[in-house]
Automatic annotation (TrEMBL):
Highest taxon above the source species: Bacteria
InterPro entries named among the record's database cross-references: D-isomer_DH_CS, D-isomer_DH_NAD-bd, NAD(P)-bd_dom_sf
UniProt name for this protein: Glyoxylate/hydroxypyruvate reductase A
Organism in which the protein naturally occurs: Litoreibacter roseus
Keyword presence, Plastid: no
Start and end residues of each D-isomer specific 2-hydroxyacid dehydrogenase NAD-binding domain: 119-279
GO molecular function, one term: NAD binding
The organism's taxonomic lineage, starting at the top: Bacteria, Pseudomonadati, Pseudomonadota, Alphaproteobacteria, Rhodobacterales
PROSITE patterns: D_2_HYDROXYACID_DH_3
Length: 314
């Protein structure tokens, strides 16, 4: 795992200040493990910076001041807030981390099972009424659609298929996935979605993907689960579809504005579940290993992993 280095690498950690306490030791441990000699800090003279470990909400927004920059390693899977930054000409790598994926699989599976099994009627309805006779179908008779079959969507689709759900998916490129029916036309996927999970990146093509027309394509009583990004859904169209019951429930982890403002109608809506962008968090220990491995590859002349396609936007 060693790397031929003639001088320590300068790695700038550019994220919210409180993140440094979380990441400093895991990054140092991971760099040691990968045989990298590095100076890791939150403040380095710009002309000396080799790599930036980055969160898009960091104060660093002008990358033109880093003349030696070799790559930006994003701490997040989503890159919509940095991908269009014209000052960034070095490669941008997004976060692909097994723990991030595992966290998303757990969150998505849990929320799909909640709606599939109708758990609310028993958990919330402890009122002495014996509600027998309402038996949920088996998973094999429940169609779950996953929009976006990338690192996270694919893992969720596989996990749901392993539980025997009738899983369908949609992505730009065709995929052969055992137990998952792939659709190339989004309307065909929407038309069968009893439960729909959004794991698309936010790009100009996916913004407002679920608008009034496409929400209308969903079967009556569909459930939406969105751990992707808020603007994938037109909020007003969703509220209208919830009002008629065409959409039975929306479980939303991500929003156009975060934190979701106090007065937003989603908070008080009986058929909306709000979670505070916690579907899956980047974990410092595993993410640090991903970052160190990528820098080691770069220093050894190997191609970087998980490089963002700046034209596609993800
Ligand atoms: P990814 O690996 O880049 O996968 C994106 C998927 O979306 C790919 O299958 C891609 O198709 C598909 N796609 C993109 N644009 C499309 C379009 N216009 N039409 C059809 N399909 C399209 O991303 P990921 O790692 O799975 O992450 C997905 C998103 O999850 C992130 O961008 C982020 O917004 C969100 N996220 C949320 C949380 C949270 O805690 N809530 C945590 C992490 C990530 P191809 O396969 O054909 O390229």
């Amino acid at each position: 795992m060693s790397t031929a280095q003639d001088k320590p690498l300068n790695i700038l950690f550019a994220a919210k200040q409180e993140r440094w306490a979380q990441y400093e030791q895991p990054l140092k441990t991971a760099f040691d493990a990968f045989g990298l000699i590095a100076h890791l800090a939150t403040d380095i003279a710009p002309e000396e910076v080799d790599y930036i470990v980055y969160a898009p909400n960091s104060p660093v927004q002008d990358f033109s001041v880093f003349p030696e920059l070799k790559a930006v390693l994003n701490l997040w899977a989503g890159v919509e807030d940095v991908v269009g930054n014209r000052t960034l000409t070095a490669p941008l790598c997004r976060m692909v981390d097994p723990s991030l994926t595992d966290g998303m699989v757990e969150w998505v599976t849990g929320h799909v099972l909640r709606h599939h099994l109708g758990m609310d009627s028993h958990i919330l309805g402890q009122d002495g009424v014996w509600r027998a006779g309402i038996v949920p179908p088996l998973a094999q008779d429940r169609k779950v659609v996953v929009l976006g079959l990338g690192e996270l969507g694919l893992a969720c689709a596989r996990s749901l298929a392993a539980l025997k759900f009738d899983v369908h998916g949609w992505s730009r490129s065709k995929k052969e996935i055992q137990g998952v029916t792939h659709h190339t036309e989004v309307d065909n996927a929407l038309a069968v979605a009893e439960i729909i999970v959004l794991l698309l990146p936010l790009t100009p093509e996916t913004t407002n993907l679920l608008d009034a027309r496409r929400l209308g394509v969903l079967p009556e009583g569909a459930v939406i689960i969105n751990p992707g990004r808020g603007p994938l859904i037109d909020d007003d169209a969703l509220l209208a579809a919830l009002a008629t019951g065409h959409v039975a429930h929306a479980t939303l982890d991500v929003f156009r504005q975060e934190p979701l403002p106090k007065g937003h109608p989603f908070w008080a809506h009986p058929n909306v579940t709000v979670t505070p962008h916690i579907a899956s968090e980047t974990r410092a220990v595993s993410a640090s290993r991903v970052i160190a491995e990528n820098i080691r590859r770069s220093e050894n002349g190997l191609p970087l992993l998980h490089v963002v396609d700046r034209t596609a936007g993800y």
